[in-house]
Amino acid sequence: MPAISQRSSQLGTENAFVVLAEVGDLQRQGKDIVSFCIGMPDFPTPQNIQDAGINAIRGEKHGYTPSAGIPELRQAAAQYLNKTRGLDYNAEDVVAAAGAKPFIMYSILATTDYGQEHEVIYPNPGFPIYDSQIKAHGAIPVPLHLRESRGFNFDPAELDAKLNDKTRLLILNSPQNPTGGIVTKSELAVIVEILNEYPNVWVFSDEIYSQLCFEESFTSIASFPSMNERTIVVDGCSKTWAMTGWRLGFAANKTLAPIFTNWVTNTESCASHITQWAGVEALNGDQSGAEMMRSKFLERRDLIVGLLNKVPGVTCLNPGGAFYVWPNVTEACDLIGANDSEDFRQRLLHEAGVAVLADIHFGKRVPDDGQHIRFSYAASNENIIEGVARLDAFIRDNTR
Fold first, then answer.
1. Is the domain of 124 the same as that of 196?
2. Which of 129, 137, 295, 378 is the most buried (most CB within 10 A)?
3. Nearest to 146 by CA among 180, 186, 118, 114
């Protein structure tokens, strides 16, 4: 048997999909599972966007498009970013891809060189594909810990200590997966002061949850004048408009747009022609569907946080955005004799029929920060009430 490359054998995964498959197996066996494991809106794509996709099919929008995307989509995305972030992009600064995820790879490839020991700083806990892609492309991953005591933000002093001449890219994600934490405008200002001392560092700003901020308006680091040219702003249609399966994301940076276009040509050719026209409608059309979903997510956040904080051994901060909560289950693990959050997660699934993710699915556990699990509250109020009730009963019934 021919050998498999080392980079392929070490490639990480997104454990939400692994657990989702496990949940599917259990459900096919007849098990009753309440699932909070996948970060996907549980609403249908708004009707006007569905109609735009259907019209694109019937209008024979079936062929290849320019690798960077159709002009109408690039213009719509530029206008959307300018309106929601106070920026000044042109259509030529924006590139579309099959989801926002490919731009993680493209950005690492565009800013680091294999074997040169270039470093990429990324949030931990964080979206697991950051770490996976950094390693796969020969850069060195440098985790930046998000701490519960700081509302799941990082200490700017820790960022300053990790930056050096080898640093090529800093990944920021706000609102954040998995904690729901937000980097505020005042916190960004401190980060910018630090980055001003390192002008050769690019910033990958993952803003896929930007329209799901609940406590304050979203601020992009690209809106700071000294950061605009070296920030890669990444967003997409998956979360705001419930279009996860349509696969459409976009990135904006004047210098890197031609580089990203070449990478799209070399990998996916172009995003789906049909999906791009649906994206134009999502960005330009009626926003009542997106506004309804945001309102529902806020209602659910308040519901699940209130319920979780009544469960023995569980404490849960109120997240500022996205649709995730990151409760601390350190005491709950002790109560039931669970070894750690992953043991707790497995027992909760198999004994109580509640599917969540453990902190280790999002990177190495933050030192001295306890045990955590993630709930995605992209679920109905009824499922939230039922799921937390099962969690409560599970802990009470198993307390030693």
1. yes
2. 378
3. 180
